[in-house]
Amino acid sequence: MGKNHYTVRISAGTAAIVFMLVFFQGLAWGTDEPAGVSDIHIRVNETAVVNGPDVLLGEIASIDAPAFLKNGLAAIEIAPSPKPGRMKQVQGKRISNLIEGHALTDETMRIDVPQRIFIKRKSQELETEQLKALVDRYLSEDLELSEYRITEFRVRGLETYPVGDLEVIMDRPKGVGNKGKFSFHTDILVDGVKIDRVNLKGRVAVYKSVLCAVRNLSRGEVIGPSDTALKTVDIFELNGDYLEFMDSVDRMALTANIGKGEYLRKGVFKKAPLVRKGDVVKLVARRNRLSIVTLGMCREDGYENQPVMVENMKSGKLVRGFAKNEATVEVMF
User: Fold this and answer.
1) How far apart are the first and last CA of the chain?
2) b/e code 252-290 from CB counts within 10 Å (16+ = b)
3) What is the band of 305 on the pLDDT scale with cuts at 50, 70, 90?
4) Strand 116-121 versus strand 87-91 pairing type
5) When comparing pLDDT for 68 and 165, which is higher?
6) CA spacing 20 to 30 A to 230: which of 156, 177, 290, 297?
7) How is 50-100 classified by DSSP, letter by letter?
């Protein structure tokens, strides 16, 4: 051999490996119409819409290349995506440098990049009415309110969200306040991942039938069913002090005047006296089987089985007895 030549000895095993590499390379590039690197063409679009948090080359460009290489090129990360629903501008030179600097490309590939690219990220919105429906379901199912209406509703912190499976979870509602106001915290999840927390506030009107006066009622009166009628009102406007039935105030007297049409409040009733000052009653004195009955005049209001001062109308003496009914006082002796 001459000095300008050299010999490389290849073992049988090594030759087989070289043959296999050449063979599979031929399969990868296709045997009918072999494609070289120079046949690969990347064309970046001037505008693009992306899905995820990172902009991938495959989302903003068309790539002509064998499948195995196309997938690799498409996965090249170009830049962080804008916020959902927002748009950002990326300089073409930056994209060109990222592509050219990647290990899967070389100078023989054709790469067309505009001077600048506008990229928008896909998004989805959560409607206020959807959240209101969630509160509505809670009021009807969890609080079991039969007749109500949401009179005020507002959402604080609602954003535009990435595309995906959207889920809304209300965080342990505390119920409705005395004035009908509510405030619920709600978590927003996309594909099972919490991405936001919003506050739902508003007011609900709850309607019930309450007792109202059908005429002007005076202080001291003991009223009955004919003096009242039921009226449907928002109970949160009544501060919780209202009556639905007469049973709870039966035989009780008013401590204040009530105008016609006004609702009856629990706080304006007191126990009514069984006998009143000035009433003429039977005075009954009992001892063993002996009963003495005379007339007396009450000198004060008397309550059932409570002591009351009565004047014996025959003797003029003051005696103390117990009111047994509206016409009888039993004397103690």
Assistant:
1) 154
2) ebbeeebeeeebbbeebbeebbbbbeebebebbbeeeee
3) confident
4) antiparallel
5) 165
6) 177
7) E-SSEEEHHHHEEEES-HHHHHHHHT-EEEEPPSTT-EEEEEHHHHHHHHH
